[in-house]
């Protein structure tokens, strides 16, 4: 995904955390903040409880790939942050996709 589609700065992350709504399932927590912009932006957070840097980066790649596959279905007027819970490290790419799809439907990111 291009940099324009990412929430990168700490200030932007904090704004989504503090003023956005949160939704969760067993594998992910998602914070959503509606904004007026031409396309959605996403931030991904994977904590150290998931494993070493190699494991965390693998999880982030799976999340990014799933979001890239869903990008046509995602509401463009949102900033959202995806936080992976520790049990995500054992999931396959297809399981990550289905769990993200579930939490995105809960958060109304995908209609």
From TrEMBL:
Catalytic activity: Endonucleolytic cleavage of RNA, removing 5'-extranucleotides from tRNA precursor
PROSITE patterns noted in UniProt: RIBONUCLEASE_P
GO molecular function, one term: tRNA binding
Enzyme Commission number(s) of this protein: 3.1.26.5
Keyword terms of this UniProt record: Endonuclease, Hydrolase, Nuclease, RNA-binding, tRNA processing
Subunit annotation: Consists of a catalytic RNA component (M1 or rnpB) and a protein subunit.
HAMAP family to which the protein is assigned, alphabetical: RNase_P
Full protein name: Ribonuclease P protein component
Organism: Enterococcus saccharolyticus subsp. saccharolyticus ATCC 43076
């Amino acid at each position: 995904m291009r940099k324009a589609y990412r929430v990168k700065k700490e200030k932007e992350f904090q704004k989504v955390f503090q003023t956005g709504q949160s939704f969760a399932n067993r594998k992910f927590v998602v914070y959503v903040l509606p904004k007026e912009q031409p396309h959605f932006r996403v931030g991904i957070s994977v904590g150290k409880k998931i494993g070493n840097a190699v494991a965390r980066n693998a999880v982030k790649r799976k999340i990014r790939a799933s979001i890239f596959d869903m990008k046509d279905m995602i509401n463009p007027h949102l900033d959202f942050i995806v936080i992976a819970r520790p049990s995500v490290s054992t999931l396959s790419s297809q399981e990550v996709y289905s769990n993200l799809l579930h939490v995105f439907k809960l958060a109304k990111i995908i209609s």
